[in-house]
Model the fold of this input.
Amino acid sequence: MPREKNFAAVLRSYRQRRGWSQLDLAQHAEISQRHLSFLELGRAAPSRDMVARLAATLDLPFRQQNALLLAAGFAPLWRETELSAPELVQVRQALDYIMGQQEPFPAVAVDRHWNLLKANDGMTRLTEFLVGPLPPDAKVNLADALVAPDVLRPFVVNWEDVVRYFIRSVEADAAADGTPEGAELLDRLLAYKGVREVLKRFSLEIGASPVLPIHFRKQDVSLQLFTTIATLGTPLDITAQELRVESFFPMNDDTARTLRSWATKRKSHDA
Done:
């Protein structure tokens, strides 16, 4: 496919996913609808500045902005740096600080597809309690761990409520993402046993709590936690933009006491 035609298809796809008409995008980008129409038909070739303007107007994430530039035949604008690279040392230090402050409660850093990048000691203790220690270099995807039938699911009392909410958030991410990787993650999660049936049993009941907790139970230990998700405020790198820090907080005093006692026992053991 000629680059103009490929660009035209990708641009049209992003615009439609945004829910905008050609007139909407043209007005927001401050260009003529006629010019935009020519771009979407492949009858005009965009400049690099025009591609960047349209991408920013559509509020595309950096990864998708690069995809639009590549479709038009231009080099990517945004870099993607390994989290372990020297250029991201301050970001790693910030992650360590945030997750350290969360102790003794769990916290993790993940990428846009819920691949685990870093975990604090609180998360390590929770994971070891539920499923046992992980191999040192194990590649963990938290979405798979939550949704698959044989990892965390047996220990989540309200798994149906949690997975119903979680899958909807993954669907929203995949729609905004527009990449094969996002669609593949969603398809993989939906393929796990029982997931589609759970989604059909939509519930309109609203609990007494303002947030949906994750209720873990193993043997006689019950833990109820809710989470917050933080992102970097001013990223200029794909890796930095896609980082998410999920922090877990106790819903009740019993859960807080249990998590604190695990930390105390670990310190005594290490000493």
Q: What stands out?
A: The mean pLDDT is 92. The chain has two domains: 3-71, 86-161+205-270. The chain has 13 helices and five strands.
